[in-house]
Structures are given as structure tokens and as C-alpha cells.
TrEMBL record:
InterPro entries: Leu-rich_rpt, LRR-containing_regulator, LRR_dom_sf. Signal peptide: none annotated. This is LRC34 protein. The keyword Repeat applies. Gene3D superfamilies: Ribonuclease Inhibitor. It comes from the Eukaryota. It holds the Pfam family LRR_6.
Length: 417
């Protein structure tokens, strides 16, 4: 076995050589990594240098800090993941990231969410991925790369054939780059999951949704698709449903925080009667109403036996629709996860979901409500479970392995390190 490198000692030496003061948080993380022998030589480790870590004093990582760190990790092949979320990296730091991606043969997971990387930084990282053949998962969430920065990633998707999971949510992208990304995904065969949530759209024509739908007709590799906050209406949902009749690969569809009403959900209900691949459907914060919930429940009760998780949180549903969904769960044993908080609970709703939980049909960790009794009446309290629970954060103790409480269910071999 080769001699184990001492990352902390290498970091101290590199800081001295460059005249850069040590970042105590980086030093702490590297010291902890040096103790991790078993995992290092088997699966590899992820260095979690997140700027929102509250267990230890945090001095957020700067561009100069990252330059020194990258030099230390240059030959550390056992470091397969790097979590740099919530730091103060800028386009200058993105240059160090790009150089690292070009030279490092081992990195598979890179999290840069909520830094200060802009358009030019996005260009550097995207161009580095033209040649990189190891990175599987990249999170750019919350970096304001804009429409031009998104275009660089669209071009990258035409060249890169290894990246499996790409998160470009909250990046201020515009309609041009969304259309370009959708066009690139008609040919790209490696991407299994992509998040395009919260773009900046200025048109009511839903042309971006139309292009995504056209992509879904031909793409046979995409498993997970996030289209939250797209200002999507019933027309867009209808286009997506038309495409999904011909798609047998998509298993997770996120349409949260849009403007879908019961008419749009009717298209989804008809789709669920025939679709045999969709497993997770997120309709959180739409305008479904009771009629929309009934459309879903009819499809789930009598036809669909594939969907495993449904979120209708804050969707303007009252007792009639919620009871219909609970009744559907009595006949559909495949639907295991349902999230309903933020709707209009009446006594019938509380009794129905209390019964599902008490009889064991609905496990407490598979929903976001918990029954309790006051004065002989059953009520529902909120639990912190949900499909997006750990999208923006992970517990300080580390990533949650239990899929019931994670950001998305473990439905496919989409690499996460």
C-alpha cells in the first residue's frame, strides 16, 4: 500500500510556500480527513467545507484559500467529493475550480451552491467539463450565472458524456439557455437528473416548457427533472403530458410552485392511468383544488400502480379532495409517500389520515402530518418530512442516508458522494 499523504501537513506547507494565511476551517476539515483511513482507501471521501457549518467556527473559503487547497488535493485521488457550498468564491475562484477539474482524475462530486460565481466563472467551469471525464455530479445552485452562463453549460452538455447530475436551479437563467439545454438533452445520453428551477422568464407563451416537452419525446436517459417556479400553466402541463406518453425513462417529475389548476391536473390524471415509469410527482404549491385531487385519486385508485410518492402541499385542497386521496391509498398499495400539509383540513381529513397511519398503511416517516387528539377530536400536526427537505441544507452531522427524509428518493443510480 502506498504511503498515506497527510493532507493537513501538506496544507500547512502550501500556505507557507505561498504566503497565504491558513484558513482554520479548511485546516480542521483536513485534520479530520487524515483520520479517515478505511473509507479513504475503499470508496473515497468527500471533504465538506461548507460555509454554513455550525458545529465548528467557520471562516468561509475565499478564492485564495481555494487556490492553496486545490494545490494540496492535486494528487489526492482518494478525495472523490468536494462540498464548497455557501462560501465566498467568485469568478476568480471558478478559475481554480476549472484548473482542478482539468487536472484531477478522481473528483466525482462538486458542490458550489450559493457562492458568488457569475457568467465568466460559469464559462471557465463549463469549458473545463468539455474535457473532464470523471465528474458525475455538479451543483451550481444559487450562483447568478445568468442566461449567458447557462448557455456555456448547454454547450458543455453537447460535449461531455460522463456528467450524470446537474443542478442549475436558482441561477437566474433565461429562456434562451433553457431552450438550448433542452436541445442539448435531445442528444446527451449521460445526464440522468437535472434541476432547472426558478429561471427568469418574461413571456407567458411557455415556449421553454414546449421545448422541454419535445426533448422528453426523444430522451431516454433522463430520470429526474425539476421544473419548479417556471410560471407553468395548464397549457404547459398538457404539452409535458403529451410527451410523457412516449417517454418510459422519467421517474421523478417536479412541477412545484407553478400555476397549475385542476384542468392541468386532469391531464396528469389521464397520464397516470397509462404511464408505467413515473414514481415521484411533486405538485407542491399549485392550484390543484378538490377537483384536481379527485382526478389524481381516480387514476391512483383504479389504474396506476407505479407512483410511489406524491406531494400536494399547499395546493388549495379541502376535505373532499384529501379524503379522496386517502381512499386511493387504501386500494393502491404502491403509493407509499404522500405530503399534504398546507391544505384545508376538516375533521374527515384528519380522521382519514389518522386511520391510514394507525392501521400501518401510511408510515409516520412517509408523510408530513401526525395525528393527535384534543377533546375527543382528531387533528393533524406538521412533520418536517418532504421531497425537498434537504435540498438547500444537510444536517451538520452529515448526509442523511434514510431516503424517506432526503431531498429526493433514491430511485436510480444517480451518483451522490
Amino acid at each position: 500500500m502506498s504511503v498515506r499523504p497527510d493532507l493537513h501537513q501538506l496544507y500547512v506547507q502550501a500556505c507557507q510556500n505561498s504566503g497565504q494565511p491558513e484558513n482554520p476551517f479548511i485546516a480542521h476539515v483536513l485534520q479530520e480527513a487524515d483520520k479517515n483511513d478505511i473509507i479513504r482507501w475503499t470508496k473515497g471521501i468527500t471533504l465538506k467545507i461548507a460555509g454554513n457549518n455550525h458545529l465548528v467556527p467557520v471562516q468561509r473559503v475565499t478564492d485564495d484559500d481555494l487556490q492553496v487547497l486545490a494545490s494540496v488535493l492535486h494528487n489526492a485521488v482518494f478525495v472523490t467529493g468536494l462540498d464548497l457550498r455557501c462560501n465566498v468564491l467568485t469568478d476568480a475562484g471558478a478559475k481554480h475550480v476549472a484548473n482542478f477539474l482539468q487536472d484531477n482524475p478522481a473528483l466525482r462530486y462538486l458542490n458550489l451552491m450559493f457562492n458568488d460565481i457569475g457568467t465568466s466563472g460559469a464559462e471557465l467551469i463549463a469549458r473545463a467539463l468539455h474535457r473532464n471525464e470523471t465528474l458525475l455530479h455538479l451543483r451550481m445552485t444559487g450562483n447568478k450565472i445568468g442566461n449567458k452562463g447557462g448557455m456555456f453549460f448547454a454547450s458543455m452538455l453537447q460535449m461531455n458524456s460522463t456528467l450524470e447530475k446537474l443542478d442549475l436551479g436558482d441561477c437566474d437563467m433565461g429562456p434562451q439557455c433553457l431552450i438550448a439545454i433542452a436541445t442539448a438533452l435531445t442528444q446527451n445520453k449521460s445526464v440522468k437528473a437535472i434541476n432547472l428551477s426558478r429561471p427568469l422568464l418574461y413571456s407567458q407563451e411557455e415556449e421553454t416548457t414546449v421545448h422541454v416537452a419535445l426533448m422528453l419525446k426523444t430522451n431516454s436517459s433522463l430520470v429526474e427533472l425539476h421544473l419548479g417556479k417556471h410560471d407553468m400553466k395548464n397549457f404547459g402541463v398538457e404539452r409535458l403530458c403529451e410527451a410523457l406518453y412516449k417517454n418510459s425513462s422519467l421517474r421523478y417529475l417536479d412541477l412545484s410552485c407553478n400555476k397549475i389548476t385542476c384542468d392541468g391536473v386532469k391531464f396528469l390524471g389521464e397520464l397516470l392511468k397509462q404511464n408505467q415509469s413515473l414514481e415521484i410527482l411533486d405538485l407542491n404549491a399549485n392550484r390543484i383544488g378538490d377537483d384536481g385531487a379527485v382526478y389524481l385519486s381516480e387514476a391512483l385508485a383504479s389504474y396506476n400502480r407505479t407512483l410511489r410518492a406524491l406531494s400536494v402541499v399547499s395546493s388549495n385542497i379541502s376535505g373532499k379532495g384529501l379524503v379522496a386521496l386517502s381512499d386511493a391509498m387504501k386500494t393502491n398499495t404502491e403509493l407509499s409517500y404522500i405530503y399534504i400539509w398546507g391544505n384545508k383540513f376538516d375533521e374527515a381529513t384528519c380522521m382519514a389520515f389518522s386511520e391510514l397511519i394507525q392501521m400501518g398503511r401510511l408510515k409516520p416517516n412517509c408523510t408530513d402530518v401526525e395525528p393527535y387528539e384534543v377533546g375527543g377530536h382528531v387533528h393533524l400536526a406538521e412533520l418536517s418530512h418532504g421531497l425537498q427537505k434537504h435540498y438547500y441544507w444537510t444536517p451538520s452531522c452529515g448526509a442523511v442516508m434514510n431516503q424517506d427524509a432526503n431531498a429526493s428518493l433514491a430511485i436510480a443510480a444517480v451518483s451522490e458522494y
